[in-house]
Amino acid sequence: MLEINNLHAEIAGNAILKGLSLTVNAGEVHAIMGPNGAGKSTLGYVLGGRPGYEVTEGSVSFDGADLLELEPHERAAAGLFLGFQYPVEIPGISNVQFLRESLNAQRKGRGEAPLSGAEFLKLARAQADALGMDHDMLKRPVNVGFSGGEKKRNEMVQMGILSPRLAILDETDSGLDIDALRTVGDGINRILRAPDKAVILITHYQRLLEYVRPDFVHVLADGRITRTGGPELALELEAQGYGALAA
């Protein structure tokens, strides 16, 4: 599904990714762990197409297409979803309005018919129910006045509605209490545990991995993946820290 080969990227002239390679197949969950400044968020931003991040070398293919040649909205329509560590607030635009426009724009990009208002509301309410989110929150401006946990739950509802093929989740566990962490983990499993989907979880800690068991755990240090293992690697990192294992 996703093939990253010798990826180099920089921002404002500072090299961040320095030869990162990674293969993600359909049906797999990959966790990427590493110290601050290693390049984890940069990887997510580069894959999502965030402006300001320049790829200087390497390639990325997504379902056989050159991902780096696609605009961000084209990447989304192709099935890529980027979940942010700190979801942004969008005053003046309701969740319902934002999500219906987003979904129908993606459907248009894929040559599919748009959902009617009634069809979309049925889908949105079903996803909100599955995540335990009050329907009234769908009417509120996107993330405005939401707690950290509510923002992450709202992001899971967005992901359920858009139903991406590949989700890149940047520290989705950040700021979550135990109950919210379990809810988010259940949401990831429900939405993305499928033979035709895949997940990249970017995280500092293994606690989310107790709910979303990865197939592979990668250590990212100094802009490249330095070690790969199974779920047990996350426990080693938790016990010993990155200094002992990243090299």
TrEMBL record:
This is Fe-S cluster assembly ATPase SufC. It comes from Sphingomonas baiyangensis. Belongs to the ABC transporter superfamily. Ycf16 family. One of its GO terms (molecular function) is ATP hydrolysis activity. Residues 2-247 form the ABC transporter domain. It comes from the Bacteria. InterPro entries: AAA+_ATPase, ABC_transporter-like_ATP-bd, FeS-cluster_ATPase_SufC, P-loop_NTPase. PANTHER family: ABC TRANSPORTER I FAMILY MEMBER 6, CHLOROPLASTIC. Keywords: ATP-binding, Nucleotide-binding. The keyword Transmembrane helix does not apply.
